[in-house]
Specification:
The chain is α/β, with parallel strands linked by helices. The chain is built from twelve helices and nine strands. The relative contact order is 0.10.
Length: 289
Amino acid sequence: MEKSDIASCLSWAKTILCESESPALDAELLLAKALDKNRTYLFTWPEKLLGNSEFALFKQFVERRLHGEPIAYIVGEQGFWTLTLKVNASTLIPRPETELLVELALDLLANKAAQILDLGTGTGAIALALASENPTFSVLGLDCIPEAVQLATENQQQCGITNAAFELSHWFSVLDDQARDGDDRRRFDLIVSNPPYIDSSDPHLSLGDVRFEPKSALVADQEGLADIQLIANQAHHYLLDGGWLMFEHGYDQGESARKILTALGYQRVETFQDVGDRDRVTRGQWFAG
């Protein structure tokens, strides 16, 4: 590349990243990050020359993307719902299809001051999206990875959300510990989760962004259903009477998810499709006794 002005850098990167699904957007996001500016700046000052350090950093970013590293990990953030969240390699990258969980939860709990539990919270995306929409919600996010809990807490502080909190826990373990310490077992109106649900033999694990994401957050035994089964087995002990369990799963797991919930005694079991008309979220309601 002969010139290092903004327009030339974008053109070069777009050509280099031609195999990406969105080469122009990738180039813009990477250059904006290298310059520590927003994307509008790029189109306002197309003839501005990059400094040597900015140019070197931009080329480094492009090289990382060329090797398949997700844009979100390179720039360190990802949009989800109405929020901009920090991300790193300790967690999954929040995806648009997971917003279906948020939509369904908000519809379910409309005008209610609810207690909500988010299992395997990762970046805190689901918990923070719900908390941001209703200040009367009290949302607890749990994750077994210390770095994820720290990241979710940073996102909570960055977004200025005060009705969500995050704790270290392997699924429900911290709630069990609190109960053993003499506290009343905490119960929730809604338990949500985007658990690992990909089978270890799934060829998609070697493609795209998921190559760089933590396998512990993606892969589950029993053809991807082990963690869903575990959560469903235990969740009713932590639900208020009439409370709901709702979780994301793979496009081909809707029937299996419904069978799991129905066999355990959950009622009003239903699967919902994402914008691509693929099974994505299943929920069921629990009634005590």
